[in-house]
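To fix ideas, we give here one paired sequence and structure record:
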Amino acid sequence: MSNYKRATLEEEDVSEVPGDTASSPDRVEVGFRKGGIDVLGRRTRLEVLLLVLLLVTLLALLACLLVLGLRFHSESGRGICLSEACITVASQMVEAMDRSADPCHDFYQFACGGWMRKNPLPDGRSHWSTFNSIGEQNQALLKHLLAEKKAQFYYLSCLNTQKIEELGAKPLTELIAKIGGWSITDPWDKDNFMEVLKVVSGPYRAQPFFSVGVSADPKNSNSNIIQVDQSGLFLPSRDYYLNKTADDKVLVAYLDYMVELGTLLGGEKGSTHLQMQQILDFEKALANITVPQDQRRDEEKIYHKVSVAELQLLAPAVDWLEYLSSSLSPLDLNDTEPVVLYAREYLQQVSDLINKTDRSLLNNYMIWTLVQKTVASLDQRFENAQDKLLESLIGTKKSCTPRWQTCIENTDDTLGFALGALFVKATFDKKSKDIAEEMIDEIRSAFKEALDRLGWMDGTTRQAAKEKADAIYDMIGFPEFILDPKELDDVYDGYEVSDESFFQNMLNFYNFSSRVMADQLRKPPNKDQWSMTPPTVNAYYMPTKNGIVFPAGILQAPFYAHDHPKALNFGGIGVVMGHELTHAFDDQGEPFLNVN
């Protein structure tokens, strides 16, 4: 009320000012007077005041619109990337499209039709993608970088086709004779099952019947342990052997391949065909007891820790202490040594199969696994035989691949970290590592936010999942040791390489890797050990270490480039990062919830 009164008094005072009562042609008064108060004057002044306030409001609104407009224009300008990298990527994206396609009818053709048209399936390839394209670019670069001594010697020995052709089958036939012979090529009447088994699967790393390795114990990731699993099939899976007719295309091609290799190594065709058929039948028997992969995904079900003594009782056809002591020489093992079995029932059944199989056939089969392991280092006749089999299996030929590419792949398989050092120095910007780590952190945060929106997940499980996500550590680009010449030399210390014999270089590497495996058993697992070499165009998750690895090879355009807009990097390598992170929570990663 006081404010109202004060306003009234002020209006009355103003009305007494001389001249206010005079008529003015500019003033129109409409109203009435009551109680001595100038109601008309008060309302008019309020209206003026309201008009002023309205005008001020409109001006303020206009100013806000101008500011927002300028900000929008500024932000729009910032949102349009006009750097050289962005223009290049935009051009590549346009080229990859097929704008003649209707995206509502066939979006894949619309988005990727141009890329498919410009990237026809190369000779010798059964499939082709951006992964393959980047891999080939990396190989071409490595071709020009081979300077590290051992890697260079190995690569040159692979390229030396003149020497390979000159030696022919001789390196392998001499090795077979040294081991004890093969009835396919020479008379054989020995009973030396354990001796042959130890040699072919020890220093030469063939894997008849079963495989043996050393790795972190899934139940105790602070300790390495001997691990034994099923093995012994040459074709990609057991399905190629089972429920097939006698004229099955792949099995016929495989038998033809076996016979051709046997005759190239000195066997008589008729006898070789008979004995190779027996080996194939034995492989079929192995396939019949081999556990399918879809039944091996649950780690809890297939993991069995036993002692060597218990393994001996389970599978008595093999002298396990003798065999493991030979494979892991010079380590001192005894009957109490722990071993993890991943195929308990298979090992029991393969032991029964060995006991009831003729010793000559067992020897033939073991030597055959060695032939498979080493034949790629022999002359063109053996490669031609491989081509026929590959054509039946996957519809392509190895000979369509240039020799230098094959040799790059072999060198990467053997001396990948030496090769990786050259690759990293030439291609990998250290900024990429920091940016990739930031991307992983952002993806991890988004993943944890997504967990909060899962109504079906209880709080305890959600918290455990978040803790595991936080505990995932990443390895980006390459292991640091490869840039230290001394450390890199130490990794390959003891591996003898020459530029003379590709076959001997391969044998030396198998022997070297066998010694490295033995050396790991009494050491704790190396958390930073890489299973992929730096030039590899791939990534992986390590369940026992709860880590994700992204080699330098995949951190290349178009998946990733440090000067690309974030949206492109997240749409490229970000997809791979998210894929690998979720492996920590799939049926094979989930059992390792509490990694030590």
